[in-house]
Structures are given as structure tokens and as C-alpha cells.
Amino acid sequence: MARRITGRSHGDPRTADTRAKVKDDYRPSRDEILRYIAENPDRAGKRDIAKAFALRGDDRIWLKDILRDLQDEGVLTRERKQLARVGALPHVAVLDIFGRDGDGILLAHPSEAVGTGEPPVVSIRVSRGGSGPAPGIGDRVLAKTFPTNEATGPAYTGRVMKIFEKRSDAVLGIFRILQDGTFRIEPVERRQPELIVDKEFQNGARNGDLVEVEPARASRYGLPRAKVLNVLGSLTSEKAVSMIAIHAHDIPHIFPADVIAESEAVKPATLDHREDWRDLPLITIDPGDAKDHDDAVFATSDLDGNNPGGVVATVAIADVAAYVRYGTALDREALKRGNSVYFPDRVVPMLPERISNDLCSLREGQDRPALAVRMVFSADGRKLRHSFHRVMMKSAAKLAYQQAQAAIDGVPDDKTGPILDTVLKPLWDAYAILKRGRDGRQPLELDLPERKILLKPDGTVDRVIVPDRLDAHKLIEEFMIQANVAAAETLEAKKQALVYRVHDAPSLAKQESLREFLQTLGLSLARGAQMRPSQFNGILERVRGADNEGLVNEVVLRSQSQAEYSPKNISHFGLNLKRYAHFTSPIRRYADLIVHRGLIAALGLGPGGLTQDEAARLEDVAVLISGTERRAMAAERDTVDRLIAAYLAERVDDRFDARISGVTKSGLFVQLPQYGADGFIPVSTLNGDYYIYDETARSLFGERSGKGYQLADRVEVRLVEVAPMAGAIRFEMLTDPKPLPDSKRSFHKAKGRARASQSRPGSRGRRR
Q1: What is d(CA 676, CA 640) in angstroms, rounded to the nearest whole number?
Q2: How far is 247 from 174, CA to CA, in rounded Å?
Q3: Could you say which DSSP state residue 125 is in?
Q4: Coil, strand or helix: which one is 144?
Q5: What is the pLDDT of residues 565-607, one digit of tens each?
Q6: Is the separation of the CB atoms in 689 and 707 below 8 Å?
Q7: Residues contacting residue 759 through CB under 8 Å, at least 6 positions apart
Q8: C-beta separation of 195 from 228 below 8 A
Q9: pLDDT tens profile 337-393
Q10: Cα 739 to chain center, whole Å?
Q11: What percent of the chain has pLDDT over 70?
């Protein structure tokens, strides 16, 4: 065996002193060769290795045989003309930055799978004083990588060479071929102009394709030109409309091959580290078209004599952490997606179907791993105690909300009849008790109906409905809220890092704006630093059944802060809860998976718990998943707008009943309650007066008449124009303005408010 050689000098693995002592017949050991290749990834060709060890003649033939043996054994792989350790990062690699360590250093994983097992972690070095933007979490970069050879910490360091940025000048559009043979780009954004494409810049696009184009500088005359950069897919198929939102919002929707391979290789969980709960008749209650079921419930009376009238409520949640381990390809992809995205015509899942719809879905009659919480409530709805358990369960029944409600209402079917007395009625009895606690807590109770779009087989809109809000919905919602609270309380008590679901109180500025608005309606909102949801509920109760009920609910909603994820707890204002964490939907939300891992680690429930590295990065992860949630909401909203616009495109010139959903100085936004469609009425089209914007009263009123339009007014409108793929709709107002108090006219004249952008009646033309 060759002697141990340490140190390097200009590519030679030996120091000068060592080289002087080595005899001509010296041959390095296999370990020395492998160490050199790892430390010199950019000088790891056969000639480089021979030169580094000063091998000549027959020794080079010997080296060639050794290197071939190492490749045959699967220890080395050849990339171009360089050799590399199997499972090692190439010297230049594409990396995805996912977080920071405790010292704030950026950390990354390779974007492509490297060997088997967990991917290596790369510590990103950022040169100080360098030009160009600095990399950050979520960026994809090209970097040179260097092994650290340290027992702990990241296996590599990386020096960023390039940040891959999304083209800021590229836009999406629909490629159209006109009758005269010319090419146009139909816009998919409301403020995007139509574009012309010359034949030499068609780039293989066909009529109806969704394309990414680069607009050219606009000319003084005619439409601006563009060239096609990429063809993203055809819009002639079903699910075409949601594809626009997927690309526009950069939502990952195709699972990489290594993620699919990893999901297919997963083995079903066993009873190891689990309690056997398969005899407990837990049931799932979900929408009728649900494909994955991540929560199951059961309830019974508390037999403890010290808790008369109390109940024991049990919630079991799919044990996703059993299959999706930190640092794996599955985990990296789930974090990148952050959550599932739900469109009317498709779902873009956070996890592959093998995980979400099979191994983790709590299917009826099949063994499934779960993380369960058993909660004890007093008769007045106070939670007395709770405990978490890692279990194997078997769902006793898969029910739809309407099906479960019908059974309680006296119309059971073949499935609900046998479990009505033993399972369903105890659940409703428990909900009655939990509702007492909710009523005492007084969370914010906004009354804003949610609409659902039903599609035809071809993916177009069939109709829009407002589903009934059943007690079955409220039961599941309250059970899930209590389970989420229990998770946050347990992790806090164990001093385990977690991601909270937080919701701040309305800002002082929004409070004051709301207060001024309510004063215009003769309503008051008390001042004070400590706002409570009950104060808003009092306002909502006073307008219940009144003409302005919808208006007040809408304005109160707009005054609220946006909920988000954070490792720092500021409570949840809307639910009026001191601590709250998402635990009940790990199949579709990464935040819940983090909480599951935290519980497993804190309670010693077996493998798959939160690691120290993961805990150190929770602040960055919280920012990332808060962003993916907002991205999903925007994409879902845009898709609904486009579907409804396409549905209404055949009804131009029709009249509709509408409600004013927004007021700006440039015009009115109106919504068709029947469809949930939003459109715009430019202020320039409001005839008969010169309209002034009243921000406080959310209204436009005529300078001369004092009559106008206010947020939530019910009006009649005519559909004038529709741009389906942009989701843009323009209406014309048919309802005359209503009288507004003279005090508003005096107020605005005295203050000299800015006027709406419209020419006076009788002047030469209108601004559009």
C-alpha cells in the first residue's frame, strides 16, 4: 500500500518535500486517487491525474486499468473528459437556493438529482463588492462547487457564476392567424396590447398556441411587433384557460423525473412506531369530487365523571412525513410548490399522485398512517386537554358533505344509515359543544358567499352556483381549527420551532379609513389599540338584513390584514386565537408538513421529524410558502375571471343586474352576483355630470347634482366588450345615479378634492 500523501502544490497531491522522497516506482492508492478527483474536479482527466502523481510509462497503463476498475465498480463516472465520484456534484452545477443556515449563509441543493440518497447541501459564497444582483432564496444559479471535506455542515461550497433570471421583457399571449394570413398575439393580460408577429419570428407557433413573446419597441404608427420565444402549448384542448395562469404566475406543474421515481419507489408505511387504531370508526367528510382525503374525524361522550356533558373529539391527519423526508427530491419539489393550486378545471398538486391520492389519502377501508390528536372538551366548549398519537387507521366511511348532512336531517342512505347513531350523531353532538366555545370566542364572522364554477366536459363554463353552507362544513371546519390550535400549543410547550399561521389586526390606517366610512352610514367603531373581532361583529350584526349589509361586509373584509406564515407568533386576529398553526392539510400545504415534522421530533414519535438544519431555516421557508400561497390565489382568481369572461363573450349587449364592487377615481368596478364576474365602467362613460371621487364614502358623485354611485350599490348594466383570454369585461351603466347627502358635496368642495379623470359634459369629446 502506498504511503499517505497530504497537501497539494499546483495540482500535485503531494508537497515538494514528499515528492522528493517518492521513488520512481511509486503508485498512489485508490483512496489517494479518489481524494484527488474530489479535490480537483476541474483537473480530473486521466492525463491530469497521471501528471499530478508523476506517473510515466507503464504506470500510466496501470492508472488506466485502475480508473476503469473504479468505473466498473460504480465508484467513478465519466462526465465529458473528466472523472467524478458517483454521487458527487460536478465542478459547475445548477443549484436551487432554498434557505440560510444559523449564520445567515445561503444554502442550496443541486437542481438535478445527484446519485441516490439525500442531495448534498452547498454553502453559497457571495463575493463582496461584486456587480449585479445578489442571489437570494428561491433563485436558481450556476455555480462552481468545491468539496469542503468537513465531517459536519455542508458538503460543498459554491461560488455563483450566474443567476438565472426570468425574462422581465417577455409576455404571454395567444398566437392567432388572421384570415389575411398575418399573425397576431392576442393578449392574456388586461393592460397588454395586441401585437403583430412577422413570419420570420413565428418560431413554429400555430393558431391557438399559448406563446411567450418578446415585444419589440413600439413604432409611432400601428400595433407594436413581437417575436415568438417559446411555444408553451395549445389552447385548443381542455384545461387551456388554467394553463395561462400556470405560465403567467410561473407555477411548477410538471414533476421532475427524479421526483416521480422517488415517489414510485416509496414503500407503504408499517405499524412500526405506531399505535393500532384501525378499529376506531374514523370517517372522512369531503366535497363529493375530492380525490385525496387528508383528514378523518370521530367523537364520543367523555366517560370521565369529572367532565359531565363533555366530549372527546378525535382528528386524524394523513402522515405525509412518513413518506416525504427532509432534503429528498420529493421534499424539495414540495417546498418549491409550497401548496396545491386549485383551478375549476384541474388541480396542480404539491405532491405526486402516488403520494397525494394513494399512500397518504385516507381511503375507505384501507390501512393508512396518520398523525392523530385526541381532544377533550367540557360541556361549555372549553378544551381541557389533548394528546397526539402516531397511528395506523382505517377509514370506516368516505362521505360527501351533502351526504352526511342529509343523514342528520333524516334522509340517510345505504352508507350513512348503519353509522348514523354510532358515528354521525355523536359527531354532531360534539360540534354543538365546540360551537359553544366558538361562540364564546367570537371570531370574525363575515357573510360573503363563495361561488363555484361547474364546467362542461369540454372545459367551458356550464353554470355558476353558490353552494349551501351546511352544518357539515362548519363541523369539519371547527374540528380542524381545534386540531390546529392543539398542534401549536404542543409545539410551544415543547419549545419546538414551528411555523405559525398568523393574522395581524387591521393597521391603524385601515382602522381609521373604515371608521370614516362607517360614519357616513351613521355607524361608529370605537378607537383603541386593542381591536377585537367582536367589535367588527357588532357592526356586522347591526346591518344584518339591511340594504347596505353587503357593502359593510365587503368594506370590513378589505380592512383586514392578510394572513401569512411566520416562525414568530403574533396570534390570529380573525379567529381570535392566541396561537394557531396549520396541521390538518399536509397533502396540499407545506406549512402543515413542517408542523407534522415538529410534532414527531418534539414527542419522539419515530423517524421523519424536524431536523436542526430545517428548524434553522424556518424564517426563510415561511416567507417562501407565504409567497406561493399568494401566487396560487392570484392564479386561481385569474383563471376564474377568464372562464367567466369566455362564458359571457356570447352575451355582448345583454343587460345584467350587478353590484358595485369597487370605486376608483377612474371608474367603477361591478360584479355580476349570478356569475361572480367582475368588470369595469370607465368614469368617462358616466353621462350627465362631472363625477368626483369620495375615497371615504367609497363613492363617485356628481359635482352639480350631488347624485352618484357607492360601493355595493345594486345597479343595472349592459355588457359592452369582452376580452376572454385577458379576463377583461367592460360594462355600461344603465341605472341613474342616486341622491347623496348634501354634506358630501359641501365636504368635497371645501376640501378641493381631486376630480375624476373625465371631461366636463358638453366639452369636445371624452377621455377614454
Answers
A1: 9
A2: 12
A3: E
A4: strand
A5: 999 999 999 999 999 999 999 999 999 999 999 999 999 999 9
A6: yes
A7: 684, 765, 766, 767
A8: no
A9: 999 999 988 899 999 999 999 999 999 999 999 999 999 999 999 999 999 999 999
A10: 44
A11: 86
Of how many residues is the chain composed? 768
Q: How far apart are CA 561 and CA 570, in angstroms?
A: 12
Count the helices and strands in the chain (H runs, E runs): 18, 34
- Cα dihedral 146, 149, 151, 152 in deg (nearest 10): -20
Arithmetic mean of pLDDT, 673-696? 88
For residue 451, which of 468, 429, 434, 426 has the smallest C-alpha distance? 468
CA-based end-to-end distance of the chain: 87
Taking the C-alpha atoms of residue 606 and residue 615, their distance in angstroms, rounded to an integer, is 17
Encode 664-687 in three state secondary structure. Answer: ECCEEEEEECCCCEEEEEEHHHCC
Which of 659, 667, 720 lies closest to 693, judged by CA?
Answer: 667
Which amino acid would we find at residue 7?
G
Strands of the 691-694 sheet, one edge to the other? 691-694, 699-702, 707-710, 738-739
pLDDT tens digits, one per residue of 105-160: 888 888 766 655 567 889 988 755 555 567 877 677 888 888 776 767 788 888 88
pLDDT one-digit tens code per residue, 460-506: 788 888 888 999 999 999 999 999 999 999 999 999 999 999 999 99
Across 270-292, b (16+ Cβ under 10 Å) vs e yields eeeebeebbebbbbbbbeeeeeb
Residue type, 435: K
As beta bridge partners, residue 503 has 572
**pTM, rounded to two decimals:** 0.74
Q: Which three cell numbers stand for residue 166?
A: 426570468
704 secondary structure, DSSP code: T
pLDDT of residue 74: 62
Torsion of CA 632, 458, 257, 81, to 10 degrees: -100
Q: Quick one: DSSP state of residue 217?
A: P
* 4 grid coordinates: 499517505
Contacts 24+ apart (CB under 8 A), 329-332: 329/113, 329/119, 329/256, 329/258, 329/259, 329/262, 330/259, 330/262, 330/263, 330/355, 332/96, 332/98, 332/109, 332/119
Residue 523: count of CB within 10 angstroms of its CB: 16
